[in-house]
Amino acid sequence: MTDSTSDDPRAPDHPEIRAAVRALCAKFPGEYWRAHDRERAYPEDFVRALTEAGYLAALIPEAYGGSGLPLSAAAAILEEIHKSGGNAAACHAQMYTMGTILRHGSEAQKRRWLPGIAAGNLRLQAFGVTEPGSGSDTLGLATTAKRQGDRYLVQGQKVWTSRAEHSDLMLLLARTTPKEEVRKKGEGLSVFVVDLKAATGGENPPVTIRPIRTMINHATTEVFIDGLEVPVADRIGEEGQGFRYILDGMNAERILIAAECLGDARWFIETARKYATERQVFGRPIGQNQGVQFPIARAFAQTEAAELMVRRAAALFQAGVSCGPEANMAKLLAADASWAAAEACLQTHGGYGFAEEFDVERKFRETRLYQIAPISTNLILAYLAEHVLDLPRSY
User: Fold this and answer.
1) Is CATH 3.30.499.10 the classification given to domain 15-119?
2) What is the number of alpha carbons within 13 Å of residue 270 lying toward its C-beta?
3) Which is the CATH superfamily of the domain at 124-242?
4) How far, in Å, CA of 86 to CA of 217, rounded?
5) Whose CB has fewer CB within 10 Å in the chain, the N or C terminal residue?
């Protein structure tokens, strides 16, 4: 895998990587994604191809078998997948969940897990944080991990834990100190790496995974945990500091999801542009009408503006500079741009936009997710209001 950039600030970053990703995605056309969407099947062949090409190991340092590329390269990979009509949700979490191990794990833990993840022998694609009773209120989670000698005994439940059925390892956030006993609100939570294959195997396994059928093919699940034993050696960092550790990864997650939204937006814009140019009604292309042109043009402008914030956030992240506001704004603006482009594309296609064979309705459903996940647009606005604009806290 190579990495190159252009001196032209208007040029796409990492053009060689983008071209290679497009070539890979060409082997997985719309028919592939439609079939998997129809059957709610996991795109195993696609994930394997990405893994073998080294793209899911882009952020893992070379010392552990990865490519050691910057976050902007990972963003370029995900953007091109979505721009090509695919969906990286089947595996994108591996890019940001392993960052918790990389930044906060011990050297022994890094050498234990990262080479296998880089080689594709291990999948770390499940992130057990959200719970039925807490939702976005991460500090309110109720799953507990009580230390008993050299192990923790875990009890609880997670929901919207995507890819748990297709992952070997899961990053799990659990409470190790009762909420009423912590000195600071963000303390008392710890992060663990769970061997899902071992935990779900045999008779009466301590972990049960139940798929949730949703509007989109997202391989998401509920995870029930009853008496799971996790070795102390599998805890990442210090006990009680897990919330701080996962916050690091959340900025990367927002930037990478924003890149996917850019890809979706560009797919919608190009699809709408092509259809509006070719579709003839009343003896003229429908794209000749300003009522058709303007929504597409506005979505294009929104997408170009959102890209600037995504690039800025990625640059700050790579420089090790605090980038919470920029990462959140990147996700907000890119998600809004992709949704505007989706609306314009569906409206341009009219009735044909609802036909499965055009892929518009599938992509329309997929990009709608990013208005609410991995963080809702309203929560981003609340964050900006309080932490950037210094307005009174609303919740």
Assistant:
1) no
2) 11
3) Butyryl-CoA Dehydrogenase, subunit A, domain 2 (2.40.110.10)
4) 12
5) C
| Residue whose tokens read 């022994």 | 108
Record the tokens describing residue 348, joined without a space.
């341009």
Low-confidence residues of the chain: pLDDT under 70: 1-7
Measured CA to CA, the distance from residue 65 to residue 257 in angstroms comes to: 24
Element (H, E) at 192: strand 189-195
- CA dihedral for 333, 336, 342, 343, sign (positive or negative): negative
Q: Are strands 189-195 and 169-175 parallel, antiparallel or unpaired?
A: antiparallel
Residue 95 CA to residue 55 CA, distance in Å, equals 9
Provide the CATH number for the domain formed by 244-388 in this structure: 1.20.140.10
In our burial notation (b when 16+ CB lie closer than 10 A, e otherwise), range 34-49 reads bebbeeeebbeebbee
Backbone angles phi, psi at 202, to 5 degrees: 75, -175
- Residue 107's SS3 state is helix
How confident is the model over 9-20, as pLDDT tens digits?
Answer: 777 799 999 999
How far apart are the C-alpha atoms of 249 and 312, rounded to whole Å? 17
* C-alpha span between 51 and 74 (Å, rounded): 13
pLDDT at residue number 2: 56
Task: Say what the pLDDT of residue 4 is.
Answer: 55
Place of tokens 């396994």: 205
Q: What is the reported pTM?
A: 0.95
The backbone region for 3, taken as left when phi is positive above 0, alpha when psi lies in -120 to 50, beta otherwise, is beta
pLDDT digits (tens, 9 = 90+) for 124-139: 999 999 999 987 888 8
Q: 3-state SS of 82-107?
A: HHCCCCHHHCCHHHHHHHHHHHHCCH
* Domain layout of the chain by residue ranges: 15-119, 124-242, 244-388
pLDDT value, residue 319: 95
Q: Do residues 259 and 89 touch, judged by C-beta distance below 8 A?
A: no
CA atoms within a 13 Å half-sphere pointing along the CA-CB vector of 129:
21
Could you tell me the two tokens for 46?
């696609």
Nearest to 357 by CA among 27, 35, 22: 35
